[in-house]
Design goal:
46% of the residues lie in helices and 25% in strands. By secondary structure, the chain is an alpha+beta fold.
């Protein structure tokens, strides 16, 4: 009887020991994964395996930064005529310096203008990224042949796409050719700029806009109108889902100081 109890106790101690060892192994494995997973991930997405990911990673931070700057300044990287609002020089999309007059549209093709502004702002960065990509492949004993092509920036619903016609041919054990590259930025500037165009048309035709009516039409969009002391209006259009913003200025049908609009 005592011998049976002794064996049972011994077996139980053995099981406890196994569980303790397994627990230690799991903890150690977790620590190793925590410290070395970034290295493992970067290896699986290495330059050798995916040059298109390389370009995306190289360009996207500047792409996002320039998009945010442009969106806070009325669609211009360097506004030529703007109103200073909370530290930003906000471009006038519709403007008159006369009293009583409706404004004149400053950018007839707003979305096309924004696309061109973004393209110009990214030209140097795109060139630098392709050059660094080529140099990195050479360091890895590849024979890269890079043919630089033009690129475009397109505002699309829910995203902005940079499309490059550059080609990259890699030769080592075999030859692979990449004939185009895309960099995609998740941003709804297309919808925000489209809403801005509606507001600008109202400002041009009637001297003001009905922001509540705009929000009733599209509840996903928030529109704020901030009246300034000189009659300028700052419009802030926000995507409620993503918090992407686009702000611009308008000055239309301004009354002289001291004259009531009622």
């Amino acid at each position: 009887m005592k011998e049976g109890l002794f064996k049972r106790g011994k077996n139980q101690k053995g099981q406890v020991t196994i569980f303790v060892i397994l627990a230690i192994v799991i903890v150690v494995a977790g620590i190793l994964i925590y410290f070395y997973y970034p290295t493992i991930s970067s290896t699986s997405n290495s330059l050798e395996e995916n040059p298109k990911v390389y370009l995306q990673n190289c360009v996207e931070d500047v792409f996002l930064e320039n998009t945010q700057i442009l969106s806070s300044q009325g669609g211009s990287m360097n506004p030529t005529q703007g109103f200073i609002y909370k530290g930003d020089k906000v471009e006038y999309l519709c403007y008159t310096n006369q009293y009583y007059d409706t404004c004149v549209v400053q950018k007839v093709s707003l979305i096309s203008n924004i696309e061109e502004e973004l393209k110009l702002s990214l030209k140097q960065k795109v060139s630098e990224c392709f050059s660094s990509m080529k140099a990195d492949y050479e360091k890895k004993d590849y024979n890269p042949v890079l043919k630089n092509g033009d690129f475009s920036v397109d505002l699309l619903p829910k995203k902005i796409v940079l499309h490059s016609n550059s080609t990259l041919t890699l030769s080592k054990d075999s030859t692979v050719k990449y004939e185009s590259f895309d960099v995609v930025l998740d941003n709804n500037l297309y919808e925000l700029a489209s809403t801005a165009r509606v507001i600008v048309n109202w400002e041009k035709n009637f001297g003001d806009s009905e922001v509540k009516l705009l929000m009733d039409w599209d509840p996903s969009i928030k529109v704020e109108k901030k009246l300034q002391s000189d009659g300028t209006k700052i419009y802030i259009v926000t995507d409620r889902n993503t918090e992407d913003k686009f702000q611009f200025a308008s000055r239309s049908v301004v009354w002289p100081p001291g004259i009531s609009t009622i």
